[in-house]
Amino acid sequence: MSIAELQVCAVEAADVTGGVCVVRCIGGVARSGQVFAAGALRTRLRGIERYGRTVGSFDAGHVAKVHLTGPVVALLGPGQVLTYVPPDGHALAELEDWLADDPPLSDEPHSERLRCLATLSMQNEELSEAVRLRWARIVLAALDRLGRPEERPYVQAYLIGSLGSGEDGDPDRDPAALCREVLARFELTPDQAAAQARVWRDLRRPEILRLRRIKNLLRCTEAARPYLAETDPLAAAVDAWTAVRPGLP
Prior knowledge:
The protein is an alpha+beta fold. About 40% of the residues lie in helices and about 20% in strands.
């Protein structure tokens, strides 16, 4: 699923009822009738003009003049990003409040859609690092509620690689914690994995899949390894596995 995002280029007119903006679509497909979030505020896209004619939609990479509803238009400025809010979706602050209440599974706003929306926002370099980190925590919460904790290391590795190591007490960007978590998932030692890799074509399918899972997860340690002290035993353990990785199927 591709969530539409619009970046404001200019505000041409605005009053209490709405206004007209020139925007660039930087993700997904924007369509008339969609609701977009600008922080905690909402605005509806009620019309799109391109090259002097009305169109129903436009996609990433293209610029259009859009008619938006509500007084929020007067608060917009160049560079601001508007994010499409699905019919049953929520703005970032609302999602954080919702998750903080630990809602029951029956009250899910489609966790997979939520993960897709939050992942796109987490990777959006137009947003501030602080906002991207908040979206990342929505991704992690969605994965937990989807019952896919095995995907958490990939999100944490992305954060460390893109935003750097977090401050003390930030478990989502702790390089050492990430490396320990990844290595703890392996049922083999590096020597055992290397020995199996040499004859992997003779192995049973579950054993081959285990080696491939190890190979994929080891990629998550690449961004974290530079933060480990050379004298740290954990660094030596990561290096031992890194040396094995090229031979894994």
